[in-house]
């Protein structure tokens, strides 16, 4: 089992290298210098306060939405609606940050998070309830409800909650609800540490707690869980609500850390990047942070690559796409490994046969 | 004996799957007009051997000869051409097509561009007449019984010109009566000069039908014996590699006590029309095993699901130790004292992606001491699991192994360990030894006997009639969702139970 896991990491690394190579070949074919482009990409992502800050600021919501997606996947749900939960969470935090003024300092921040989480969780509960009660496909509901969430927020920041400045945004949240910035003048903020704490919490919850055990039992085999006496429906709804809450937190951090208000259409499919980060690593909670950082770095570094190496930044999307294609080809490296093993065995004249692994 | 006598010869065959040696230097040969049984436990390599003969797998080493001709790169197409036919364990029939259409599928006689159905019908009718098979060629497969479907499979192979018939566990799905008929057909086929390979692990059937018996164990060829020189006990010993007690009889030492389970006029929906439960009533007492016999799919599964809370009861009541548990959620039914070994071990019984220890603790992982302050205490789980692994002799003796890789017997022992450990007053055991090797069967039956001796009630459902007869104190026979008879196991004969299983005897002989 352990061996299988480490094989996974190797596969992931090979996939990464392979997709970079394909990207390089592509760049070379259209007349750019691949090495130069990658150097600029790396520099643009990590070298310098602003660059690193931008990467980290992009990293946080990708990470949280990715974790959210992975948690839903643990209860065998495909939460395609995290973008909606992110928007609603952001709006909820913007509302609580501006209008709820009686709470002092840290309590105000906590309250904003709480509201964002509750809103995100309740929104995610809708597809879950429809799924367990009437067997409605949660992916359809998620995709559709995301539009509802987005347009609802759009209406709020243009209408009832508008700042009145002609820009579709809500009024600034009060100063005590703002998360401190780090690595100024980038938009990176204290939300990074909250996100890191959440990694540990979710990791503990899924792999160490009884609740996580239930999630996994339901996600891996519903019939078995039902027979053992677990309330499968309840657990599925719980899993989706945790997932939605994470989306809500992601939105809240964007508002309270990066912007200070809710800006219409502020997220250009952040949750999709998170979802992809999670899918690439087979929804392995411990790998989601790594992959999220990678995706964030690609996004952040793309601009400087374009500026200094002259390579259009859409090339990054190409690399990401290639990566996803390779990563979803689960047997890509297994097949070649199998062949290699077979070849090796033949070469040794079957001298070392291992008695058989099945027990 | 000269080599020309063999229609099939497999010499020094070897087959590996990744690192697993499925077949290791094995031999098999078949004379014309004989019935040759190939026996062995699950995973012994019998099916793999035969799949190589049928061209489904390629051997890594060794020689396959058909009619003395060495075959290379055998494919099913070539094997059929050479007269090899295989009746698989799961029937390969198209449910929506008629018997006739199924038989000729892929080998249709043509008249110009159209299929010559008259010709096909004539040919099939000759087989039906020759071998006295009762088949109506124009019925659709989903309208005929399992026994008939099997005969269709046999005709299909004959129609394709088979001289050698490979039968993979053919009797597993048949009632005793159907078995008798099936054996008659085999005899006729033999008389006609067909050669038959009979794969089984039911030793009494092997003894009844075969001329010779080959034994495999753990991928290795053990020996070939003439039937007249052997007996079931010896064969079992050869299969398992040690002495085995084949028949663990129900010990009548325990006096049945209080009524533990009472099912009263139960009605439920069914997966199929004939498996709806229609008004079933019976009781199980403490210290008693009640066996449910019946042809698969006559409502046994639905009955168990209804009792355990996995299927909705439409009418009637289920009472456990005096408490009405009708339509209880599985958790509450368990709390009321119900333990359940489900029939679908790999779907319901186990979470195959999880480790042995997580499966063993699956009923109480969220309780102390296995979870404290919301955090799971894996040390306690390990201790608990290792204890059960030792007690129930689950192999491998490593608690963190994923159950996927376990053999049927050891996987089943996990389920049994967990359910027996739960200690309910009623233990429902559905198909407890299905797909389990002989050694494990022995241990599982012993475990169930001990549970009974502890004064618990056992409700046993099994498609293996021998098992029901051996283990039960009373036998409830089901047919089309109804009880056709309740018999005392001591007085009942197999034939009698078989009649009830076919619904031929109505409820005229109820036990008082």
TrEMBL record, chain A:
It is a multi-pass membrane protein. The keyword Nucleotidyltransferase does not apply. InterPro entries: ABC_transp_permease. Its main location: membrane. Keywords: Cell membrane, Membrane, Transmembrane, Transmembrane helix. It holds the Pfam family BPD_transp_2. It is found in: Cell membrane. The chain crosses the membrane at residues 12-35, 55-73, 85-102, 108-130, 190-207, 235-262, 274-298, 318-336. It comes from the Bacteria. The keyword Transmembrane helix applies. This is ABC transporter permease.
TrEMBL record, chain B:
InterPro entries: AAA+_ATPase, ABC_carbohydrate_import_ATPase, ABC_transporter-like_ATP-bd, ABC_transporter-like_CS, P-loop_NTPase. CDD domains: ABC_Carb_Monos_I (cd03216), ABC_Carb_Monos_II (cd03215). Gene3D superfamilies: P-loop containing nucleotide triphosphate hydrolases (3.40.50.300). Keywords: ATP-binding, Nucleotide-binding. Residues 8-243, 261-505 form the ABC transporter domain. SUPFAM superfamilies: P-loop containing nucleoside triphosphate hydrolases. GO terms for molecular function: ATP binding. PROSITE patterns: ABC_TRANSPORTER_1, ABC_TRANSPORTER_2. The keyword Nucleotide-binding applies. This is ABC transporter ATP-binding protein. It comes from Jingyaoa shaoxingensis.
């Amino acid at each position: 089992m352990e061996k299988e896991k480490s094989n996974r990491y190797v596969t992931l690394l090979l996939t990464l290298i392979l997709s970079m190579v394909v990207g390089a070949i592509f760049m070379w074919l259209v007349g750019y210098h691949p090495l130069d482009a990658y150097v600029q990409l790396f520099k643009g992502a990590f070298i310098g306060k602003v660059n690193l800050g931008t990467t980290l600021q992009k990293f946080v919501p990708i990470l949280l939405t990715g974790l959210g997606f992975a948690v839903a996947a643990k209860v065998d749900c495909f939460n395609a609606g995290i973008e909606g939960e992110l928007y609603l969470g952001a709006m909820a935090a913007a509302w609580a940050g501006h209008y709820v003024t009686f709470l002092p300092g840290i309590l105000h921040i906590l309250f904003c998070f709480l509201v964002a989480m509750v809103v995100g969780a309740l929104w995610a509960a809708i597809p879950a309830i429809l799924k367990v009660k009437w067997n409605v496909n949660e992916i359809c509901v998620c995709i559709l409800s995301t539009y509802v969430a987005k347009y609802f927020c759009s209406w709020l920041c243009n209408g009832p909650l508008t700042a009145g400045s002609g820009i579709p945004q809500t009024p600034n949240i009060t100063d005590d609800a703002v998360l401190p910035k780090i690595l100024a003048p980038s938009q990176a903020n204290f939300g990074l540490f909250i996100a890191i704490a959440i990694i540990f919490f979710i990791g503990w919850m899924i792999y160490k707690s009884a609740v996580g055990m239930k999630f996994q039992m339901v996600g891996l085999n519903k019939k078995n869980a039902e027979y053992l006496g677990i309330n499968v429906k309840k657990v599925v709804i719980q899993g989706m609500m945790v997932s939605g809450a994470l989306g809500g937190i992601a939105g809240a951090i964007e508002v309270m850390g990066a912007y200070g208000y809710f800006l219409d259409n502020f997220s250009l499919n952040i949750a999709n990047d998170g979802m992809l980060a999670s899918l690439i690593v087979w929804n392995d909670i411990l790998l989601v942070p790594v992959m999220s950082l990678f995706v964030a770095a690609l996004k952040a570094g793309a601009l400087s690559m374009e500026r200094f190496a002259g390579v259009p930044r859409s090339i990054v999307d190409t690399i990401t796409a290639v990566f996803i294609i390779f990563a979803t080809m689960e047997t890509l490296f297994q097949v070649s490994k199998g062949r290699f093993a077979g070849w090796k065995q033949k070469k040794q004249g079957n001298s070392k046969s291992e008695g058989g692994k099945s027990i | 004996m000269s080599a020309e006598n063999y229609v099939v010869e497999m010499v020094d065959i070897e087959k590996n799957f990744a690192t697993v040696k499925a077949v290791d230097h094995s031999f098999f040969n078949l004379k014309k007009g004989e019935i040759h049984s190939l026996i062995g436990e699950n995973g012994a390599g019998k099916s793999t051997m035969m799949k190589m003969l049928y061209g489904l797998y390629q051997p890594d080493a060794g020689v396959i000869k058909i009619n003395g001709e060495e075959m290379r790169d055998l494919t099913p197409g070539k094997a059929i051409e050479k007269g090899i036919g295989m009746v698989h364990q799961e029937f390969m029939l198209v449910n929506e097509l008629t018997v006739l259409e199924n038989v000729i599928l892929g080998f249709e006689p043509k008249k110009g561009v159209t299929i010559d159905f008259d010709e096909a019908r004539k040919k099939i009718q000759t087989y039906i007449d020759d071998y006295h098979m009762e088949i109506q060629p124009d019925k659709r497969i989903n309208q005929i019984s399992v026994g008939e479907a099997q005969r269709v499979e046999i005709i299909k192979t004959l129609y394709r010109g088979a001289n050698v018939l490979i039968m993979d566990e053919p009797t597993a799905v048949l009632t005793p009566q159907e078995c008798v008929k099936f054996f008659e057909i085999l005899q006729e086929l033999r008389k006609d000069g067909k050669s038959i390979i009979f794969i089984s692990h039911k030793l009494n059937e092997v003894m009844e039908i075969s001329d010779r018996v080959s034994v495999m164990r753990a991928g290795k060829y053990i020996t070939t014996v003439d039937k007249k020189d052997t007996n079931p006990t010896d064969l079992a010993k050869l299969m398992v590699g040690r002495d085995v007690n084949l028949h663990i009889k129900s010990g009548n030492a325990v006096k049945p006590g209080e009524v533990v389970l009472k099912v009263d006029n139960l009605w439920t929906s069914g997966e199929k029309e004939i498996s709806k439960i229609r008004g079933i009533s019976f009781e199980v007492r403490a210290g008693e095993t009640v066996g449910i016999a019946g042809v698969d799919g006559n409502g046994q599964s639905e009955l168990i699901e209804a009792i355990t809370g996995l299927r909705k009861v439409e009418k009637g009541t289920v009472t456990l130790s005096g408490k009405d548990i009708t339509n209880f959620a599985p958790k509450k039914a368990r709390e009321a004292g119900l333990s359940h070994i489900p029939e679908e071990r790999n779907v319901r019984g186990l979470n195959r992606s999880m480790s042995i220890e997580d499966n063993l603790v699956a009923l109480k992982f969220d309780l102390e001491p296995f979870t404290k302050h919301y955090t799971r205490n894996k040390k306690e789980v390990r201790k608990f699991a290792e204890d059960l692994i030792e007690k129930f002799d689950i192999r491998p003796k490593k608690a963190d192994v994923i159950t996927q890789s376990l053999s049927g017997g050891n996987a089943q022992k996990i389920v049994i360990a967990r359910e027996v450990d739960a200690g309910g007053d009623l233990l429902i055991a559905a198909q407890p030894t299905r797909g389990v090797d002989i050694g494990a069967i022995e241990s599982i039956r012993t475990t169930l006997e001990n549970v009974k001796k502890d004064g618990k009630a056992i409700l046993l459902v099994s498609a293996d009639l021998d098992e029901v007869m051996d283990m039960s104190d009373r036998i409830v026979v089901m047919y089309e969702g109804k009880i056709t008879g309740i018999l005392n196991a001591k007085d009942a004969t197999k034939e009698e139970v078989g009649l009830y299983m076919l619904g031929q005897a109505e409820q005229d002989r109820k036990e008082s």
